[in-house]
Amino acid sequence: MRRHLLLTALTSSLLLAGCASWFEGSTQFQPTPLAAIKPLQALDVKWTLQQAAPAASFLPVYANGNVVTADADGRIRSVDALSGRVQSDVALKRGLASGVAVSGDTVLVGSQDAKLLAVNRTSGKILWEQPLTSLMLEAPQIAGDIVVVRTNDARLTGFSLADGKQQWSVVNVLPQLTVRNNGSMQAVGKEAVMVGQAGGRVDIVNPLTGNTIWQGAVATPRGATELERVTDVTSRPAFDGGQVCAVAYQGRVACFDARSGSLQWGREVSSSRGVAVDARNVYVTAEDGSIWAYDRQSGRNVWKNDDLKYRDVSGPAMIGRFVLVVDGEGYAHLLSNESGGIVGRNKIGTTGPVNQPVSLGSSALVQGRDGRLAMLNLG
């Protein structure tokens, strides 16, 4: 039986530690102090809501004017996106491992006893449940009439949204060591699901059959030890304008033609935090907190911002034409998409790590792992 190590804590320690010596100990990088800025764009906190501290595997979802959240205690909330008022609040009598996905009034979550649950979000009634082969540690994806889930044993499974009947199942082989993955799947309409994989790969999967449409090598494992060879895509790939872009931990960022899967370009950078795209660039938060912009067509480095290094910076998200990131001290920063300079800032009150913000046009949804949920707007 192969041994797999989930490197969540190790990833964080490697991010903040310098060169370690058996005799001299390790050097801890201090967070870069925030420099004063001249605000050019206001960033407002429209509303906040304090919840139980969720694991990284719980991500909020925007659906039909509401924000839907869940937590490990089995609480599912629906919040009005404009006002922040709680519309419904149900408590399941079972613990949850991950969530959420939403279709109409149905919420899909994974339970701590390894089951996929379909729940009515207003009444809390369980519409159906299906056993899984292992815990589901990331939110499911809905592609048309199919719910796609990935379990901790690297199995991808498709279920009918209507009644939960299993449609297909595919097993992937894990390397010896992997970084814990809390969310690297993203549905693209009814046609495909993008799946970031261990070993530096992104797979495009047909949700109706589970067949792989194409595979792309974001990065290739390299190094003398198993630890050096950990190269995983642990954040959601981005799709836009016929292009798929993804980034790998200890690897690189790469973009592919969405139809053929052919590699368009790749550039060396290590990130487990995610990518964002606009019409011109691909944006990446590196493991050290630096933020990079690459030209979407050529891969040319457009700019790099080092002002937030070692501040436990989130993955990037677009808010209007600006790049939004949130640091571990609860500051949200707006970066110019053209120059990378910080043009706006606001303290939103989160403490510690923040999941990659959810882009909603000129707004963005931020959830800290301390349970604080905030809706941000451009002023």
TrEMBL record:
Family classification: Belongs to the BamB family.
HAMAP family linked to this entry: OM_assembly_BamB
Record's protein name: Outer membrane protein assembly factor BamB
Domain of life: Bacteria
GO cellular component: cell outer membrane
Gene name of the record: yfgL
GO aspect biological process, one term: Gram-negative-bacterium-type cell outer membrane assembly
Position of the signal peptide: 1-22
NCBIfam families: assembly_YfgL
Membrane topology, record value: Lipid-anchor
Pfam (any one): PQQ_2
Pyrrolo-quinoline quinone repeat domain: residues covered: 73-305
Assembly with partners or alone: Part of the Bam complex.
Keywords recorded for this protein, A-Z: Cell outer membrane, Lipoprotein, Membrane, Palmitate, Signal
Main function: Part of the outer membrane protein assembly complex, which is involved in assembly and insertion of beta-barrel proteins into the outer membrane.
